[in-house]
Amino acid sequence: MAIATRSAAWHALLPSLVPAKPRIFFLRSRPGRFLSHAHGLRPCGAASSLPPGEYLPPLFSVAPMMDWTDNHYRTLARLISRHAWLYTEMVVAETIVHQKDKLDRFLAFPAEQHPIVLQIGGSNLDNLAKATELASGYAYDEINLNCGCPSGKVAGHGCFGARLMYDPEFVGDAMSAIAANCDVPVSVKCRIGVDDRDSYEELCTFVDKVVSKSPTRHFIIHARKALLSGLSPAENRKVPPLKYEYYYALLRDFPEVHFTLNGGLTTIEQVSASIRQGAHQVMVGRAAYNNPWNMLGHVDSEIYGMPTRCSSRRQV
Ligand SMILES: Cc1cc2nc3c(=O)[nH]c(=O)nc-3n(C[C@H](O)[C@H](O)[C@H](O)COP(=O)(O)O)c2cc1C
């Protein structure tokens, strides 16, 4: 049975966001109360054409994956699912700013790939702003900032990716600069914590700061923390334990913000179950790459309640 039904109340939440008040956060060991937001079908065209306040983050999306979610993969993914939202690989802001004459190489995509989100990375406000402005011409449907990559090059040398979770104030400023330079929604993809900054309260402070300093109302939560030394990026995607309870607690504590659940979902049944349990949106990475047909072949019917695009792998 399809998950999608429409909720006007849910749409109405975004514009009515009130400034963050000091809060006390409690983490239940299990998600005690699941919210029962219904999920609307998102129009499949560019979100930029939606009236303000009508924006809903993607119900189902394919995660940004460096070297994997390139144009070729995204073309294949779109052949299989019309409705799944697709994320680009992370593009570093400096790459965009310093290669102005080769922008197509990094930013161009075929129109059929809508709805599509550009993920950028960086820790320099000016460059993030300029990169967003330069990317605006490409009509992405949302701009996302990477606050979850633990790789040495990114979070070490580069001081961005997951390292940014150490500085919520900066992320708030960065999101404000990004939003000021585009006319589409903006979002943050982050971990539930980093190194020993891994308490639920610290995660809430991060969300609180970013929401109060910028128009960001959508966070993608990779539900495990990142360790910035001692683990490879691949280990950082499996060694730190998944803590879905942090995700569900965020739904309870920030009812005015959209949260996408990411991490460890490997089947369409798990995706459907997460949404039934109250997840606002779900993002799948490796499973959508390793077996696109098994995952994406069911998204349009099972998640969006729409006809499947292709009836068989052979047709794709
Ligand atoms: C090869 C690979 C590259 C990745 N590159 C990125 C990236 O560029 N930006 C990002 O935010 N996450 C990146 N990730 C993390 C995924 O987006 C996702 O958060 C992670 O794989 C957990 O989701 P999953 O368990 O469904 O795979 C990458 C993951 C993989 C496997």
TrEMBL record:
Keyword RNA-binding attached: yes
EC number annotated for this UniProt entry: 1.3.1.-
Top EC category: oxidoreductase
Limits of the DUS-like FMN-binding domain: 62-295
Keywords: Flavoprotein, FMN, NADP, Nucleotide-binding, Oxidoreductase, RNA-binding, tRNA processing, tRNA-binding
Signal peptide: none
Catalytic residues identified in the record: 149
Cofactor(s) needed by this chain: FMN
Source species, domain of life: Eukaryota
GO molecular function list: flavin adenine dinucleotide binding; tRNA binding; tRNA dihydrouridine synthase activity
Residues that bind FMN: 64-66, 119, 189, 222, 262-264, 285-286
Family: Belongs to the dus family.
Function: Catalyzes the synthesis of dihydrouridine, a modified base found in the D-loop of most tRNAs.
Protein name stated in the entry: tRNA-dihydrouridine synthase
Organism: Aegilops tauschii subsp. strangulata (Goatgrass)
